[in-house]
Design goal:
Bound molecules: adenosine-5'-triphosphate, magnesium ion
Distance between the termini of chain A: 19 Å
Helix content of chain C: 25-40%
Oligomer: heterotetramer
Structural class of chain A: alpha+beta
Strand content of chain C: 15-25%
Radius of gyration of chain C: 19 Å
Strand order of the largest sheet of chain C: 1-2
Helix content of chain A: 10-25%
Number of helices of chain A: 4
Number of helices of chain C: 4
Largest interface: A-C, 69 and 78 residues
Largest sheet of chain C: 2 strands, antiparallel
Strand order of the largest sheet of chain A: 2-1-4-5-6-7
Order of helices and strands of chain A: EEEHEEEEHEHH
Structural class of chain C: alpha+beta
Number of strands of chain A: 8
Chain lengths: ~170, ~170, ~160, ~160
Amino acid sequence: MRIKSLTLSGFKSFCDNTKVLFDNALTAVVGPNGCGKSNIVDAIRWGLGEQSAKNLRGRGMDDVIFNGSEKRGPQSLAEVTITFDNTDGLSHPLYVDYPEVSVTRRLHRDGTSEYLINKTPCRLKDITDLFLGTGGGARAYSIIEQGRIGLIVSSRSEDRRAMFEEAA
Amino acid sequence: MRIKSLTLSGFKSFCDNTKVLFDNALTAVVGPNGCGKSNIVDAIRWGLGEQSAKNLRGRGMDDVIFNGSEKRGPQSLAEVTITFDNTDGLSHPLYVDYPEVSVTRRLHRDGTSEYLINKTPCRLKDITDLFLGTGGGARAYSIIEQGRIGLIVSSRSEDRRAMFEEAA
Amino acid sequence: SRKKFKEAFSVINEKFQEIFPRLFKGGQARLQLSDPDNLLETGVDIIAQPPGKKLGNIELMSGGEKALTAVSLLFAIFLYRPSPFCLLDEVDAPLDEANVGRFVDLVQEMTSRSQFIVITHSKVTMEGADALYGVTMQEPGVSKLISVKLVDNTANTRTPEHATQ
Amino acid sequence: SRKKFKEAFSVINEKFQEIFPRLFKGGQARLQLSDPDNLLETGVDIIAQPPGKKLGNIELMSGGEKALTAVSLLFAIFLYRPSPFCLLDEVDAPLDEANVGRFVDLVQEMTSRSQFIVITHSKVTMEGADALYGVTMQEPGVSKLISVKLVDNTANTRTPEHATQ
Ligand SMILES: Nc1ncnc2c1ncn2[C@@H]1O[C@H](COP(=O)(O)OP(=O)(O)OP(=O)(O)O)[C@@H](O)[C@H]1O
Ligand SMILES: Nc1ncnc2c1ncn2[C@@H]1O[C@H](COP(=O)(O)OP(=O)(O)OP(=O)(O)O)[C@@H](O)[C@H]1O
Ligand SMILES: [Mg+2]
Ligand SMILES: [Mg+2]
């Protein structure tokens, strides 16, 4: 379940619909401070079902919706779609026949959220089920946020255990 | 009370007697990972009277004594001397006539520590008195350790207060 | 379950012992259970010895050494149970140029098992990538994606299939 | 005492409002007491707005923006109550090249009040310094100091007095 592409719209600083293709084995994302690089990591975490606003550097979940800039007003919807390459046979039995699987998450200003798999509405549980056990989803050790690499070494030995349990 | 020079011996990775001159307004210290740059910052903090081993990245205070390398055995004494330029008239009344003031700190393997001002043995209290009120000593905001610059912004507003109290 | 944890721990430990000296160009490291008799709650300790140094408390290691040790452990876990993709946000920031070079070499090797997306300010890492995305805020406050510069890595047979956006 | 704290707060706030837009090339920022009626315990909030962006929660700022904001506050405090020396250990690590340049310019200006010692891996910062010390471990595990390369900063009248080691 490699990531083929990521589409963002109204998510954090990505106000306009933006599509990022990830066709390569090693992709580097670059740009000046504050331009939106780490927001791409947040978009992937959010699309995979992240429930804690704090893990997305926000206070409330509505902090992921574009809240305006010098010239633009705030948006009322944040939407992220992650399209996975499903040809490695790792995915959930329900989706074995699809070459691609896409998960979409939306959040409206009024707080309602929507989840979709291959454009069909579903529940959050369906999204987490999709990734459970297949090794296809984000494990705690597959996304390392900015500034947190040193924590693996400086945390207490009990805290480090979680990574091993996740891999077991 | 600018720093004129720093002499280290047996302190962390500085096994041999090393003298660093700081005659310039802006000095940059460079070198590969793990070569000993941050140990210089630790040496200055320690020389100014730091009492917490944890703030020097150690478990016990004896972690500051050179504990050996591939080819060398451990040392039994760590010694740091900081020589200050005392011509700006900021220092303690006792030392007004001296153009330079040097503070020395020693720690022996057996745990005994020594403090000296201008090579004369004194107590830790004499060293902290030397700097109190003169603005000559290390304030919390005059030494920023590696990786801690972001904390000023992400800490709680009550924690930030300490910097203002120190400056007041 | 206890058995699974024990098996994961011992394989990851083996891999960690292989990767650490490659990233550090020498030295050795290993993992140790802090309470081996209680597999359900035991923590995991890291014992690391960079080349030429004495085995010591990992807290005394430098910022760069800690980051490199963390990357070694991370990749060791990946080799035991790879995840299809891996996102690394400026993990190369504390590293000096030589260590960034070794880090990129290892990431390139890992790409046979997983897809890597790395955010970086380092030119060495940029040069090692198959594709480069630039993010810009030409319009202040609004992020846009700019050109995909395909890195001509003739040495690297991994030519990406299609690069048009 | 309450009066001293209040005075320190308001002068530092003024300086902070001056320095922030210089480091960010625009934008604005200010400090605010979280509980102004209780001067003995109140915290200090930071309100910051990088150029072109909406005023928001500082937690949403990027790693580099947070570091730059922290440096602005640090220097604002220094302008109120300078300390004779200042040690900065790789504070430029999260910054991109343009921001490192502005950071170094400001540090150079601050050196009229205080002495600065900076640890860095950035070439831009190295070029801005009066003197450069290299630390090496040619003998593994043992730190030594190597040559002092005096940066010939002809534009910079601050020629160091004596450079022999
Ligand atoms: N909901 C939102 N609406 C608009 N802008 C937002 C929103 N959330 C975050 N931002 C903006 O995104 C910017 C941060 O982006 P990000 O953290 O991705 O930067 P970065 O490219 O990683 O930078 P650095 O190199 O400093 O780490 C902030 O300036 C913030 O104002
Ligand atoms: N008591 C000691 N005896 C011998 N070596 C020590 C002692 N304490 C620390 N060290 C060594 O010092 C090294 C760390 O040095 P330091 O933190 O100064 O590196 P650095 O130059 O700041 O590197 P980086 O660029 O990665 O931050 C470690 O490798 C550690 O083994
Ligand atoms: Mg970032
Ligand atoms: Mg360091």
